Amino acid sequence: MLKTAFSRRALPLLQRRWTSQTTQQPFPPDINEWSHPPSNATISDEEIYRLAAKPRRPLTLADLVRHGKPPLRDAALLDSANFTLSLLPARLAHRIQALRNLPFIVVANPHVSKIYNNYLHSLSTLEPFYKKPIETIEEEMKFTDVMADLVRTHSNTIPTLAQGFLQCRKYIEPAEVTTFLDQHLRARIGTRLVAEQHLALHMASTGDAATQPPDSHHVGVIDLALRPADIVRQCEGFVGEVCELKYGVRPSLVINGEVDAEFAHIPMHLEYIITELLKNAMRATIESGKEGEPIEVTIASAPDVTTTKLDSLKKLSVTEANAFDFSQEGLDEYCSSPDADIGPLNAAAPCITLRIRDRGGGIPPEALANIWSYSFTTFNKDEVDEASDDTGGSAGLNAISHSGTDQSSIAGLGYGLPLGRAYAEYFGGAIAVQSMYGWGTDVYLTLQGIGKMEETKKAKTGFEKLQAENGNE
User: Fold this and answer.
1) Span 147-176, pLDDT tens digits
2) N or C end: fewer C-beta atoms under 10 angstroms in the chain?
3) Are 265 and 203 part of one and the same domain?
């Protein structure tokens, strides 16, 4: 899986001191206004302000397949690098500004401060590249190393932020935590995805991979023929093992409906969402004593979808509540761009819905209103206190990061469901919950694909095009 390939090791934590960067100033430094934690990053505040003020265009699944099927020719690989570079600096700068807007006592927390410095570090490493286009393969290779460093650096953002906000819960309101995390983690989806897409295209277009037969179904991290039923079975195996580890038993799972349905989407996103939903369903089923009742997953594809993704984008408006990953100026520019009027954006995107039904007793009415809050958890107070302790909470926090880690707890810390919804909604999907207290819960997961992908599936790779051209000469 791509996500595990780039997250094997994290960068060492930079040493931070509450001192000035020069030896001439006294400690503590004489500062009359709010300041942010010091960092070893070299990028200036003025540059951060300039980048954060730039329009941020939306990222669509169609953008991720625009460069063609790998292995790519050099020109397409350079286009991918420059496209990635056109998106990342403004997004990183905007998140740095958002972190600075938190109360200083929160940003000063070691875990939140680590994330803050990670963003400064990543933006600093991009600075040598974004001021002029990448024009050679040598420059592209250096840029790709920076992208790999960025993915590794931010691989543990979710559990690190979770621990930081747990420790700071006395100093910030739960509603403010939910608003910040909802925006920050949604923005992180796009930042990480655009970096991982270029890395995947680079790896599939260089070295030994370029000499192997191409995968007709994959364009980087996009699977053009993704079968939700296959993802459900994979996640069932993983979550079932966690259930047996914790409870000694696992519920059965039945898949019905259109089990052969497929569409173009990102497997690791769907894997995360399904894992979190099955964790909730299996835990509720077992703890209610209904482990004999199977969990039912029904798959359905919408037969008649006429609205294109471009139509949907044109109707959007950016407000303070949804300004997590793009600005109104960037949206307007994107919708008026000639590139937005071609390809998959103008094809009706297929829509697939999964219903996950359990007999786990439903959600108590007093808890139903809080299920989308990042501050809400089904852990009791002692377990939350243990998780927020640096010495004892890593195992519980691992359960909220991603399904590729070694997880020892079936219960998360309140991040699984809202983060799953963020993944679903990022590309126009949704999650809806219907609970019958005393009986069970139905969760409806709706996902939108890219559009009609038949032409993309049949399209030649960059090297196949080159061979065809040489054959015609």
Assistant:
1) 999 999 998 898 889 889 989 989 988 888
2) C
3) no
